[in-house]
Amino acid sequence: MRAPGDPGRVVGEVVVGVAAATVADRAREAVLPALAVAGAALLVGVAGAAALAARLRRLTLGLQPEEIGGLLQGHEAVLRGIAEGVISVGPDGRVVLANDEAARLLGRPLGAGDDAGELPEAVRRCLRRPGGAPSLALVGERTLLLAARQVDRDGRALGRVLTVQDRTDVELLTRQLDAVQAVGEVLRAQRHEFANRLHLVSGLLESGRTDEAAEYVRTLLATGPLGVRLEGLEAVRDPYLQAFLAAKASHARERGVRLRLGEVAVAGRVVDPVDVTTVLGNLVDNAVTAARGGREPVVEVDVLQDGTDLVLAVADSGPGVPEALREQVFEAGVSTGGSGIGLGLVRQVARERGGDAWLAAPADGGADDGADDGADDGADGGADAPAGLGGAVFVARLPGAMAPPGAAADRVPEVP
Questions:
Q1: pLDDT tens digits, residue range 319-343?
Q2: What is the homologous superfamily of the domain 71-166 according to CATH?
Q3: What ranges do the domains of the chain cover?
Q4: What are 83-101's pLDDT values in tens digits?
Q5: Can you tell me whether residue 381 is helix, strand or coil?
Q6: Would the pTM of this model clear 0.90, i.e. be above it?
Q7: DSSP 3-state assignment of 318?
Q8: Which of 247, 249, 251 lies closest to 259, judged by CA?
Q9: How far is residue 114's CA from residue 110's CA, in Å, rounded to a whole number?
Q10: Span 232-398: which CATH code?
Q11: Closest by alpha carbon to 330, among 126, 103, 137, 118?
């Protein structure tokens, strides 16, 4: 201490402190609460770690990190390596994963989180029926085989997996093969029937019964191939098309429907009979199915040549296409009485050739409201759709299906 009157002189010292025993006592008193807090924190951490581990096990289905890594590698190898499209949709209706092949076949990008409700209607319809039989569907310009499966693990629904296979070429070749087979059968039947008729004519002439022979020949000319009377068939110069129309007239008659020719203006020959018979066959089959059951079931076919384009128009006396189906009638699964594939195949073949197919008279009861689904690309030029039967009228334009008018006709190979 310094004296009050003399700051420079020290007069004493004062020491202030805490006894060591007191400090030791205070330390011992603080240890227990600190240990309690630390223990509580440890327990909370352990409980949180256990809860987090349980959640991770639940999210990873009990798989360990190394197992997850192996599964991911295998998943990527399989998903990117297979030739089929694969789409996985979670329980919330959103895409979990999709490979590049699925995006290519559906014609749109697919990513995780996309809403499955934005997929094409045929795909959504298949996803709504998991476990059912695979179904054919026309998506864009492709014929796809769709199959959906429900995926569960330990009683828990994980979502649905859709597989997509491209059946465009197979389905098209199948239809074309059917058309070729039908033409071949008709030509063989015609040759056989023609031989029988010649034998009869020869027998009549050899027996001197010329009047009966002449009458029989006139009858044959009136009835046409296979005994089916199809007025105007002689105007069709192409043997494939003529035989096919005769066959369809015979098949229609067997189903109680009369097939007739409307306007026929075909001067050249068919250079692609497979596509032509595929389109015409499906149009006629669809019309015959629609016309059956009516009071006077009739199907009318117009065959027109516009340069090298062939325009086919088929009308029926059926009930027409309901208004709700006018925009979807060419989609797979949408049927006016048939399988739901034929009309889609007609449009697919026509568009692959650069043409189109459309519904020219869609209204119920045959009322033509002027709608023309193919008019936007100019495909209807020169084709007047037949009218007056009270049903639908479908038109197809096939560019390049005919030889130019006046071109030298090649020899048509004989069908054995």
A1: 888 877 777 777 755 555 544 567 8
A2: PAS domain (3.30.450.20)
A3: 16-59, 71-166, 232-398
A4: 788 888 888 888 888 888 8
A5: coil
A6: no
A7: coil
A8: 249
A9: 7
A10: 3.30.565.10
A11: 137
